[in-house]
Amino acid sequence: MNAEGELAPVVQSILRDARNRDTPDERVSVDARSFADAIARTESKGEIPVIAEVKPTSPTTDGNRTDDPVELAKQMVEGGATALSVLTEPEHFGGSPENLRRVREAVDVPVLRKDFVVEEAQLDVVEADLVLLIARFVGDDLSQLVTAARERGFQVLVEVHTRGELEKATDAGADIVGVNNRDLGKLEVSLDTFESVAPEVPDEMTCIAESGITTTNDARRMREAGADALLVGSAIMDGDVAENTQRLVSA
Ligand SMILES: O=C(O)c1ccccc1NCC(=O)[C@H](O)[C@H](O)COP(=O)(O)O
Q1: At what angle do helices 97-106 and 69-78 cross, to 10 degrees?
Q2: Model ipTM value
Q3: Which terminal residue of the chain has fewer beta carbons within 10 Å of its beta carbon, N or C?
Q4: Which ranges carry the Indole-3-glycerol phosphate synthase domain (predicted)?
Q5: Is any ligand 1 atom within 6 A of the Cβ of residue 245?
Q6: 182: which DSSP letter?
């Protein structure tokens, strides 16, 4: 763990809660749906690959969307989502492992587990096609966690915010990297982040632009800066999720 003292208090609390949650004794074994194939299918239709996020609430969102996550997920797929991201963090994002389990059973696209995994045992909480590891939070354990996740069958999305974190992701053998436009220290969002970090992402890596993507202009901007896919939560959750997904997919 690095620089925790520099993190916003709510992020420190998210990490504390993540470490204190119970973990199962048994290891999961995942038969994952290919994310690369899902991206290729979307691109063959001339559409933008969008990972639509089932995000009931968050520390930076007003209110809480209480619709059934399965219904939201189905509407996102109907709107053309390439993959889904499902929050499993309960205290600050209104998510749960059960939400993910139900969503994955109900759709046939790859599903990302969105949580704050900082130790190996947390990988066994629920099966998913992809799991998120946030470089800033796992620090020196990144390489070991990437290996542990792959041994279980997960595809691994390593999230970075800076060029330094990208280097760590590369050293850890990441092949899917997400550049988060949200600074998880200060919770500020700027699309400039992706534009600054993405040119350094090796061509062979799948590169995802995360957070703060709201308009079709934002989507095009991230694509022009090199995004293979976009991860979008708030802008899709605000209103009709099928229409919102469709708007970004066809931007
Ligand atoms: O979204 C938050 O408020 C947040 C606060 C603290 C830590 C993480 C947070 N978000 C995690 C994410 O990365 C986003 O859910 C995801 O990238 C989608 O972002 P957006 O499209 O801006 O909702």
Answers
A1: 40
A2: 0.98
A3: N
A4: 27-247
A5: no
A6: B
